[in-house]
# Entry
Amino acid sequence: MKANFYHKELANGGWAKLSFAEQMANIGSEIERAISWRKRGRNEYSQEAFFRALELLDFTIDEARNESGKLKELCRTREGLVDYFFGENEYNSSDEVWQKYFRAFSWWASLQRNK
# Structure
């Protein structure tokens, strides 16, 4: 059975060409969209953006399998996001927490591009 991906080109190797900072910044963009749509009461759009973010995060997790420190952080990030968007929010996350977390990667990716 062939998997259906939101990001077909990225699933076919394009994701691996991006730096870690760029990957995380792209995930953050989808999280920003999920938050924005949810604030507007557009839950279907919010869910779709969130699922796209999870797909990208899963691509990053797959690439980090040999880097235990990074893998652990990525898996905890995934767990926290799922808890926040669909769970009981046991970790007491907020929109602002996730925005700050991913904004740092956007900043880092920007610094890499401007070198």
Summary: The CA atoms of residues 68 and 107 lie 24 Å apart. Helices lie at 8-14, 20-39, 43-63, 68-86, 95-113. The mean pLDDT is 90. Residues 43-63 form the longest helix (21 residues).
